[in-house]
Amino acid sequence: MIRSESLKKNQDFRVVYQNGTSYANRLLVMYVLKNQHKKNRLGISVSKKVGNSVVRHRLTRLIRESYRLNETDFDSNLDIVVVARAGAKDKGFHEIESALLHLAKKHHITGNEHDKEISD
Predict the structure, then answer these.
(1) Distance (Å, rounded) from C-alpha 105 to C-alpha 111?
(2) Most Cβ neighbours (<10 Å): which of 76, 82, 101, 113?
């Protein structure tokens, strides 16, 4: 399996924001854009409005771990940017993971969705 990389450059984030599709729930906003790479690239953004650096880094770790554990369910060749909302500040791992998977289903980028469509 090909592991995902991180989106690091501001320009890469901007391209996904401007050209990608977005869905949101109470905790997260997810932008998705097809890329030319053979793997997914994940970018995580947590604003200072959400909390201090401890809170922001904690949310970043929770989102990254949620994605890592479910990485095999995601389609490939995608740039994914996840933006944490202020409501996510006090939430635990399972709530963040649930919100991430909910948005992935809305975007139709989880393998589970495609398996069901193929079998129908």
Answers:
(1) 9
(2) 82
Q: CA–CA separation, 90 vs 95, rounded Å? A: 10
In the prediction, which pLDDT does 119 show? 37
Q: How far apart are CA 7 and CA 12, in angstroms?
A: 7
Is residue 59 within 8 A of residue 84, CB to CB? The reply is yes
Q: Are 27 and 96 in contact (CB under 8 A)?
A: yes
Backbone torsion region of residue 4, taken as left when φ is above 0, otherwise alpha when ψ lies between -120 and 50, otherwise beta: beta
Rounded CA gap, 24 and 31, in Å? Answer: 9
pTM attached to this predicted model: 0.87
Structure tokens at 49: 């409005």
**Secondary structure class of 9 (helix, strand, coil):** coil
